[in-house]
C-alpha cells in the first residue's frame, strides 16, 4: 500500500524499536540514507539498529555510525516494531527479510520498485537519492539536521548524482546539499574519503580498462570479466564510470562473474531507458543507471545481455529514424 511522506513519518513516530536496512552491495545512498535516518531517529529517542546483509566498503568509514552497522543475526533484532527498507525493493535485502519480524515500511526512489512484499511503500522517482527523501522527511517535521545526519545524507545525495553532475541533479538537490553544508558538512572531507583506492585496486582498474570492448558500431562499450579475471584485478570498482565517458557511446556495461552461474551487471546510458534491459533479467534501477544479476554461465549471460542491448539500441535507432522522417 502506498503511503504519503507524512504517513511514513507517523509510522516511525509510533514505533519504539526500529531496524533500518538497505540493499546488498550497498552504495553511498544505501549507507548514507540508512545512517542519516538512524541518527535522526535516535535523536528522537528511538532504539534503532542498521542491519545490512553484506560487507560495507571501508571507504565509508568516514561516516558517523559506520562501525554500528551490523549483519543480520538471528539471535538479535528479531522483534522490532518496524523494519524500514531504504533505497531497495524487498527482494534485495538478503536475510534481513526472514530474520526481522516486523511490518515493513519501504522508502525508495527506484521507479522499478512495485512495492511487492512491503506493507507500506513511499516511492518518489523524482528524487535523485533516497537520502533526498529522508532529507524531506526530517525537514517536513521541522527538526534540525545534526552534523552526523547531515554528513550521511549529503553522501547519499553526492554519490547518487555523481557528485552533482548527472541528469538527476535538480535545484532541489542543490538546495538540500546547501542546507546540509550549513549544518557542518565539509564536502572535500567526504569526497577525498570516498575516492580512496588501495594501490592494487587502481592497478586492477587499469587491467580491467584494457579489457573494454566496443560493440553495436561503437554505440555501446563494455567489459565482461570472469571470476578468474576478477581475482587478478582486486575488484575494479569505478570501471563503469571510465567506460561511460567513451566518445560516441550511448550505453556502458560491466558484467562481472561473481561465482559460477552468477553474473552481476551494471549499465549506464545517456538517455536510453536501461531499466527495460535490466527488467528482462529480473533487475531494475533508473532510466540512466540500472543493474541486474543473470543466473547463467558467463558466456550464455554475455550473449543474452549483448542481444538485449543490441535490441534496445536498434529500437532507439528506429525511433530516431522515424522522428527524423517526420
Ligand atoms: P549499480 O550499477 O550497481 O550502481 O546499480 C545501478 C542502479 O541499478 C542502482 O540504482 C541499483 O540500485 C540498481 N540495481 C542494480 N542491480 C539491481 C538489481 N539486481 N535489481 C534491482 N535494481 C538493481
Ligand atoms: Mn543504491
Ligand atoms: Mn539510490
From TrEMBL:
<protein>
    <submittedName>
        <fullName>Bifunctional oligoribonuclease/PAP phosphatase NrnA</fullName>
    </submittedName>
</protein>
<dbReference type="InterPro" id="IPR003156">
    <property type="entry name" value="DHHA1_dom"/>
</dbReference>
<feature type="domain" description="DHHA1">
    <location>
        <begin position="238"/>
        <end position="314"/>
    </location>
</feature>
<dbReference type="Pfam" id="PF01368">
    <property type="entry name" value="DHH"/>
</dbReference>
<dbReference type="InterPro" id="IPR038763">
    <property type="entry name" value="DHH_sf"/>
</dbReference>
<dbReference type="Pfam" id="PF02272">
    <property type="entry name" value="DHHA1"/>
</dbReference>
<dbReference type="GO" id="GO:0003676">
    <property type="term" value="F:nucleic acid binding"/>
</dbReference>
<dbReference type="InterPro" id="IPR051319">
    <property type="entry name" value="Oligoribo/pAp-PDE_c-di-AMP_PDE"/>
</dbReference>
<feature type="domain" description="DDH">
    <location>
        <begin position="17"/>
        <end position="156"/>
    </location>
</feature>
<dbReference type="InterPro" id="IPR001667">
    <property type="entry name" value="DDH_dom"/>
</dbReference>
